């Protein structure tokens, strides 16, 4: 008789299933019993031992730390307060007001300026003799002037020569220098710089005194020689480290984490490895001194106790986990084998349905694998068009010129093409309309360009490939039957109609490249299409350049002759500004009549604009290079005759502004009246010269011809006349009178008074009383 195998019984929903308990349930039940009986007493004993020992050690560490911090904080505060006092004294006794009012030229009227600058440099040299000071210099807000102990020069040259390796130093410094400052430290990663503004009690100072503090000297001040102190530091209220010594990168990370989570509070805190203490600075309440203590030395008993406690706890924890694991593993060996198989296999079919909670982990893991595969597939599919566009770009730029390499890379990115088809490249050069360019957001520009690409793709799905080789250039690769030779022209015409729908935003030129029959020859078609772009005319907003047009044969000189340049200079000197614009309009009309190419016309107009600028700058002392560069950029962006006409009308209106209709004598009388009313303020010659559209030298010479005295002499004499009235009619002090008549320093006022009157103000007052 054959032995019958008993059937396998499955538990129904209402049956009592007598199979062993699930592995997870059994494991946690066994481990919970072990935790209650053994681990809880071990944990309680460990915690009690640590609390008692840690409390004792913490009290001693806090007491030692308080004594140590009080000592080095007092020394540092004293040094910084001494530096602040020195900065205030220098600014109080400096002759900055004289420098700000002194003329910045080499004329006889500005002979006092070198003496003033020399005095300021001597004060800076005295300040740099302080052991804590590395470098000191003045930064003038409204003047292009920098002064340090060695030299004085303009700002651009100063930062380029003094800090050649730090190109961002000037923008960072100018961004920080605003408002009143009384020894505020600037946020600069390269150096620790203290700033103080002058005049002191004003929200819009004229000068900043900047002092770079020696980091090594400041580190010596806050250094504590005890071996159990790992490092010390000074931080501000934002948590920025101003100076530190002995702190590693890990220590600084711990410090920043402590400030972010708990803030800055004058309390002693202890972590696993470090003790940290904060103390408020008496020099600046927003500063805090920080010390970090190696608790491995001070708290060695704590470490030993903690190590033994953790050792016992880990030992009993491992023993309990192993016992619980062993007992549960015996019952759940089949499920474990299934889970291990799922980790190393990918299932593409349906998930198997199992009854019972013991299979929940397996089911969730299977669903997770399928979800991961789906997301990965979607991500790769989304990246494929971007990779293909990069592939097209490299082919057009000539990086892939081998048929085998192109075929290999095409298979890698799942791109298919017909080897027997013909192809041509259409280059589309475009730019936004200048009238709406500035008001259009970047998101709108991106959306418009994406919409254009989609419409071009829909013209011939699968037969047109688009890539952007430059920000202002689209390249369309058109694939077609070799028998349809005019297909690229028809496609260009369809693209032209699409761009005409967006003529409110875009101006475009479509260059058609020659037809090629191999993928590795596409770069030749691309180069030919680029060459076609230069034959664009100026009559249409969107133009197609398919071959060398007739306008190429036109004899057109793109440069002005010597006689024409001289005629423009003569018209400018005789102030015949209308004829200058009329001659440009004549050139534009001639260009329209001859159908000149855009590139030829722009070369000629650029030469005209350059001649205009040279004529205007012949009467000025400085060349406004950034603005003139913008004028040439605007000229290059023009793509129609109307844009060129409006462009030169605007440029002409700016460069050749007509003077005010009032006579010259009346204008200078208004300047004199303004001087009489505002003699106590800064009266810059550049201000009045700019109002009259003159250079400073021309204004000074014309002022003397109209008024009878030089501009500087007239102001000085009028101020001294007012000063003599104050001396005889009031009891004001010399310093107060100097400020009332526009002098920013007592010494400069006395020097000017003695120069014109022969005696000092005090002697003048005493002799007339």
Give an overview of the whole structure.
The chain crosses the membrane at residues 31-54, 307-327. This is AraC family transcriptional regulator. It comes from Paenibacillus glucanolyticus. Keywords: DNA-binding, Membrane, Transcription, Transcription regulation, Transmembrane, Transmembrane helix. The protein has 769 residues and is of the alpha+beta class. The chain folds into four domains: 20-331, no CATH class; 417-548, Alpha-Beta Plaits (2-Layer Sandwich), CATH 3.30.70; 562-655, no CATH class; 664-768, Arc Repressor Mutant, subunit A (Orthogonal Bundle), CATH 1.10.10.60. 56% of the residues lie in helices and 13% in strands. It contains 28 helices and 16 strands. The strands form three sheets. The chain has a six-stranded antiparallel sheet with strand order 3-2-1-6-5-4. The protein has a five-stranded antiparallel sheet with strand order 8-7-11-10-9. A five-stranded mixed sheet has the order 13-14-12-15-16, with helices on both faces. Helix 1 (23-93) packs antiparallel against helix 9 (300-331) and helix 23 packs across helix 24. The longest helix has 71 residues, at 23-93. The protein is flat, with a radius of gyration of 42 Å. Residues 1-21, 105-109 and 347-357 have low confidence and may be disordered.
């Amino acid at each position: 008789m054959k032995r019958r195998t008993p059937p396998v019984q499955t538990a129904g929903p209402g049956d009592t299933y007598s199979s062993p308990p699930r592995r997870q349930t059994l494991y946690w039940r066994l481990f919970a019993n072990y935790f209650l009986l053994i681990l809880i007493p071990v944990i309680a004993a460990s915690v009690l031992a640590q609390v008692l020992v840690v409390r004792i050690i913490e009290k001693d560490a806090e007491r030692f730390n308080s004594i140590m911090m009080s000592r080095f904080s007092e020394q540092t505060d004293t040094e910084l307060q001494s530096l602040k006092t020195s900065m205030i004294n220098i600014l109080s006794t400096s002759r900055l007001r004289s420098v700000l009012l002194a003329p910045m030229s080499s004329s006889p009227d500005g002979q006092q300026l070198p003496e003033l600058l020399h005095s300021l440099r001597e004060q800076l040299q005295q300040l740099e003799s302080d052991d804590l000071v590395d470098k000191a210099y003045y930064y003038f807000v409204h003047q292009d002037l920098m002064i340090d102990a060695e030299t004085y020069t303009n700002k651009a040259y100063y930062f380029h020569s003094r800090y050649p390796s730090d190109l961002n130093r000037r923008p960072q410094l100018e961004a920080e220098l605003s408002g009143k400052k009384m020894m505020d430290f600037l946020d600069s990663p390269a150096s620790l710089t203290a700033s103080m503004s002058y005049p002191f009690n004003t929200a819009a100072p004229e000068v900043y005194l900047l002092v770079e503090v020696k980091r090594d000297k400041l580190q010596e001040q806050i250094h504590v020689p005890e071996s159990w102190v790992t490092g010390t530091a000074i931080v501000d209220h934002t948590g920025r480290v101003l100076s530190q010594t002995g702190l590693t990168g890990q220590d600084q990370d711990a410090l920043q984490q402590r400030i972010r989570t708990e803030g800055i509070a004058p309390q002693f805190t202890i972590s696993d490895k470090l003790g940290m203490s904060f103390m408020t600075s008496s020099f600046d309440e927003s500063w805090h001194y920080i010390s970090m203590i190696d608790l491995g030395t001070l708290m060695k008993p704590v470490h030993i106790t903690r190590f033994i406690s953790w050792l016992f706890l880990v030992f009993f924890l491992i023993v309990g986990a192993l016992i619980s694991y062993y007992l549960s593993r015996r019952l759940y060996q089949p499920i474990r084998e299934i889970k291990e198989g799922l980790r190393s296999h990918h299932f593409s079919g349906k998930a198997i349905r199992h009854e019972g909670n013991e299979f929940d982990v397996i089911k969730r893991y299977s669903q997770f694998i399928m979800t991961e595969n789906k997301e990965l597939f979607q991500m790769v599919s989304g990246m494929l068009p971007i990779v293909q566009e990069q592939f097209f770009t490299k082919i057009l730029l000539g990086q892939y010129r081998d048929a085998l390499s192109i075929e290999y890379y095409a298979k890698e990115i799942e791109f298919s093409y017909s080897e027997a088809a013909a192809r041509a490249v259409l280059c589309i050069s475009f730019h936004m309309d200048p009238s709406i360019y500035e008001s259009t957001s970047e998101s709108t520009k991106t959306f418009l360009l994406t919409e254009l690409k989609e419409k071009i793709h829909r013209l011939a799905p699968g037969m047109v490939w688009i890539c952007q080789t430059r920000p202002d250039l689209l390249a369309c690769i058109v694939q077609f039957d070799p028998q349809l030779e005019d297909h690229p022209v028809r496609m260009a015409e369809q693209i032209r109609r699409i761009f005409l729908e967006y003529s409110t935003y875009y101006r475009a030129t479509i260059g058609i490249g020659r037809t090629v029959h191999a993928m590795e020859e596409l770069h030749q078609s691309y180069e030919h299409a680029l060459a076609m772009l230069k034959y664009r005319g100026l009559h249409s907003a969107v133009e197609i350049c398919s071959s060398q047009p007739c306008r190429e044969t036109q004899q057109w000189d793109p440069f002005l002759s010597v006689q024409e340049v001289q005629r423009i200079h003569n018209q400018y000197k005789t102030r015949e500004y209308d004829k200058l614009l009329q001659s440009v309009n004549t050139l534009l009309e001639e260009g329209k009549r001859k159908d000149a190419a855009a590139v030829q016309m722009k070369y000629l107009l650029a030469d005209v604009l350059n001649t205009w600028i040279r004529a205007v700058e012949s009467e000025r002392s400085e060349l406004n290079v950034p603005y003139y560069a913008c004028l040439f950029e605007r000229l290059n962006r023009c793509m129609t005759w109307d844009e060129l006409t409006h462009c030169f009308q605007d440029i002409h209106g700016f460069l050749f502004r007509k003077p005010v209709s009032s006579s010259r004598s009346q204008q200078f009388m208004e300047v004199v009246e303004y001087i009489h009313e505002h003699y106590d303020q800064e009266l810059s010659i550049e201000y009045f010269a700019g109002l009259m559209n003159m250079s400073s030298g021309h204004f000074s010479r014309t002022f003397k011809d109209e008024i009878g005295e030089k501009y500087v002499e007239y102001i000085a004499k009028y101020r001294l006349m007012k000063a003599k009235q104050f001396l005889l009619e009031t009891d004001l002090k010399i310093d107060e009178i100097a400020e009332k008549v526009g002098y920013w320093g007592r010494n400069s006022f006395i020097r000017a008074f003695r120069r014109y009157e022969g005696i000092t103000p005090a002697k003048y007052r005493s002799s007339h009383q």
